[in-house]
Here is the input.
Amino acid sequence: MKKIELCNTSDVEVGQAFKVEKEGLVLAVFNVEGEYFVTDDLCTHGPGSLSESYILDDIVECNFHNGSFNIKTGEVVSAPCTDKLKTYSVQIENNFVCINI
Here is the structure.
């Protein structure tokens, strides 16, 4: 496993997302009420960027076809999405959001 530092916690305001491209991955870092979550940035249904999409609590609604996912689990919340979103285990180290791949 390899640890990747994605961004500083201060880069992601509460209720917002931040797009990060590292190690060949394109990721969305979410701040849900002070807790950080990381998913793939690309919607599983189409070319929508989840870091640029509408966020309400722990749900992100894709800006392409309006399907939505649970940010914490990656589970599909509404159609037209049918495939679960890939999520990553997050660690906060020295105010940096990190994942292991």
